[in-house]
Each structure stands twice: as structure tokens, then as C-alpha cells.
Automatic annotation (TrEMBL):
Organism: Natrinema versiforme JCM 10478
Name recorded for this polypeptide: Halobacterial output domain-containing protein
Halobacterial output domain residues: 12-75
Pfam families: HalOD1
Organism phylogeny: Archaea, Methanobacteriati, Methanobacteriota, Stenosarchaea group, Halobacteria
Domain of life of the native organism: Archaea
């Protein structure tokens, strides 16, 4: 499952939970909090602009509710999340 995500960190968190819930066939509120799998503040910091003003690029991955979540981002400001 691939989704383009807004750079807004809260939107990224919500999209991850919603995507996993869809794969699991459950209500997103029935899933454990995302912070059980990853520090939301650290995840948000990954999307922040650098001190020099340039966007960051790279990827991060973690497991949430048995699914591997990978977020890739580059200078386009359009992160892509993959949930396996």
C-alpha cells in the first residue's frame, strides 16, 4: 500500500494509523497508539526543514501492529509511505 502524504507531521501520523487500520479491517481507534511503535516527535522532526532552510531527504522504517511501515521523503515535500 503506497500513499502520498502531506508534509504535515500530524497528517503523516494519521495516515499511517488509517492505512494500517484499513489493512487490518478495523476501526483506527481500536489500534494501539502509534507512539507505542515510534516516537511521534522524532518522526515529526524528520520532516522539519533543516537549519539551512533546505528540505530533508531520506527514509525511516518501523513496525506498527505487525506491519512494516516505511516513509521515504526527498526535496519534493511529498513523503511516500509504504505499509506491508
Amino acid at each position: 500500500m503506497n500513499q502520498s502524504l502531506a508534509v504535515d507531521a500530524d497528517g503523516v501520523h494519521e495516515r499511517i494509523v488509517t492505512g494500517v487500520a484499513a489493512l487490518e479491517g478495523v476501526d483506527p481507534l481500536s489500534l494501539p497508539p502509534l507512539f507505542d511503535a515510534v516516537d511521534p516527535d522524532a518522526l515529526a522532526a524528520l520532516f522539519a526543514t533543516t537549519e539551512s532552510g533546505s528540505p530533508r531527504s531520506g527514509h525511516v522504517g518501523f513496525t506498527y501492529v505487525g506491519h512494516q511501515v516505511t516513509i521515504e521523503f526527498d526535496e519534493t515535500d511529498t513523503p511516500v509511505v509504504t505499509i506491508d
